[in-house]
Amino acid sequence: MQKYELDDSGRQDVGEGIDRTLVRGESMEFIRYTYRGGSRFPVHSHPSEQMTIVAQGRIIFRDSESDGSAEVEVGQGELVVIPSNEPHGAFVPQDCGETVTYNVFSPVREELPGGGVESAE
To answer: What is the tens place of the pLDDT at every residue in 19-42?
Structure first.
């Protein structure tokens, strides 16, 4: 059993106005993302199933970068489940301010969007 602090010491800048704090277990990983208003996470996919809980603010998930893509808006206290290999990206409206999400992935991914694989210790 290992305890972690979700303070800013393990925070990584992944660009585009987005920071993350990563903790990895053997078969699951947890990421706290902090988004500034107007930030975008590019469309990507991964073999891991993903659950995202919005702890603060709101975020809009899209299935592509095109204007006709499906969108799902998720607000504080809401959760979205993204199946394995489903293309998705996200953006935080400019007027939203800071948005914080808690994300759980299973299994652990070999590569992360934005690079890096180090976990908070």
So the answer is: 999 999 999 999 999 999 999 999
